[in-house]
Specification:
Helix content is 26%, strand content 25%. The chain is α/β, with parallel strands linked by helices. Strand 16, helix 4 and strand 17 form a beta-alpha-beta unit. The longest helix has 32 residues. It binds guanosine-5'-triphosphate and magnesium ion.
């Protein structure tokens, strides 16, 4: 809202226009009241005289009240609207913002219990496979460890804030081991690999691509400490020479921080693309978790239930899809627990939707593996 006066005897407002939010397709009315009806009113949209369109705009003046009705709200109606009242002595104007909410561009689950039950009752399609194994990869500080914390909070019933995560400000990666994390008694294993870093500078930093490929293929044992200067080699005493399906990775989860997407270096993006290409060669399904969504969108930060109405989140998903070369429907926005002290059902629902997707994708991979095994029997 802005309110400004030009001379001493000009008209005055009794109340001014207020900012409005409207859902797509609905009608919104902006109204104000002046101290006199002896004025002419001029409406502007984004600084230009409003071109009234039949069936879209309706301008009213009733005594001292002035209003503008905008019908069947569309994206292009989102703007700052200004009314200027003028009489022989001068003029006065005020403005307000009309925000048009998108209708949900993806269905949002609002109840966690059915998803929790489905995951608790989930059975892997092959008896030979003990657990579905997921590898989380992404830039340092992307929120890989936080995702595990968030899922643990949901299934283990208490908050795991900061028990695995690094600090927001550190420049180097915090996680260095090929450590397995489980969630309650679910048959899922998560491997949170040390963040990918840029090759700029003297030596390669962060987890090596050849080690990630070794992990995909099942050559890396639990608790192996990654070395930045050297990959795992066959001669290493802990190298798993004949891996079974239970040593391999069944789904790759790329973790991308929404707020740092545009600042990610070409080098890290190329590394991620290369890793994805290697996973594709091995037939490993791949999905993306887009974290830190609260950092890029106020609407989402205030009400996570509106995430699928957010234009900013949608833009970030499109950007992420272009940068990584993944289709948009494989990208799941999530918010992790980081400073919350209470459980939040909406936050849990987003994480559960994302978890459900990776579980089904990994299970499909096992199904394909299992049918290939049968062919050779
Ligand atoms: N606001 C917000 N902060 C988050 C979110 N997810 C993670 N963070 C914060 O981001 C920082 C980095 O998160 P981590 O989970 O340690 O990231 P990481 O990918 O495991 O990092 P490395 O192990 O160092 O590669 C921590 O301070 C988290 O609290 C989120 O969804 N929203
Ligand atoms: Mg970590």
């Amino acid at each position: 809202m802005a309110y400004n006066r030009n001379s001493n005897s000009e008209p005055e407002f009794i109340y001014v226009l207020g900012n409005k939010t409207v859902k797509t397709g609905q009608t919104v009315t902006l109204s104000c009241e002046a101290n006199t009806s002896e004025v002419t009113a001029k409406w502007e949209k984004a600084g230009y005289r409003l071109q009234c369109v039949e069936g879209k705009h309706r301008v009213h003046k009733k005594g001292t009240r002035f209003s503008l009705e905008i019908m069947n709200a569309k994206q292009e109606d989102e703007a700052n609207y200004t009314i200027t009242l003028q009489n022989h002595s001068g003029s006065v104007s005020c403005s307000a913002m009309v925000t048009v909410e998108l209708t949900d561009w993806r269905p949002l689950e609002t109840q966690q219990e059915p998803m929790i039950m489905a995951l608790k009752n989930f059975k892997i399609c092959s008896g030979e496979v003990r657990e579905l194994r997921f590898l989380l990869h992404g830039p340092i500080g992307a929120g890989k460890s936080s995702i595990i914390n968030t899922l643990k909070s949901i299934f283990e019933g208490h908050q795991f804030i900061n028990c695995l995560t690094g600090s927001d400000s550190t420049g180097t990666s915090f996680t260095t081991k090929y450590e397995k994390f489980t969630i309650g008694t679910l048959p899922f294993a998560f491997y949170d690999v040390m963040g990918l870093e840029s090759n700029e500078g003297k030596q390669s930093r962060g987890v090596r691509i050849d080690d990630i490929i070794n992990a995909f293929k099942g050559h890396i044992p639990d608790n192996y400490k990654f070395r930045e200067d050297m990959p795992m080699i066959e001669e290493h005493r802990d190298y798993i020479t004949s891996p079974t399906i239970n040593n391999k990775i069944h789904c790759l989860v790329s973790v991308i921080p929404a707020d740092r997407l545009s600042m990610m270096s070409e080098d890290v993006i190329n590394k991620m693309r290369n890793i994805r290409a290697e996973a594709s060669k091995l037939g490993i399904p791949q999905l993306v978790f887009m974290t830190r969504v609260d950092k890029v969108c106020e609407l989402t930060s205030e009400n996570l239930g509106k995430i699928y109405q957010s234009k900013k989140i949608r833009e970030k998903i499109t950007m992420c899809s272009n940068k990584l070369g993944v289709t948009e429907n494989c990208i799941f926005p999530v918010k992790n627990y980081h400073n919350e002290i209470r459980s939040n059902e909406q936050l849990n629902c987003l994480a559960l939707q994302a978890l459900t997707q990776i579980v089904y994708s990994a299970n499909d991979y096992i199904k394909r593996w299992s049918s290939r095994q049968k062919q050779f029997e």
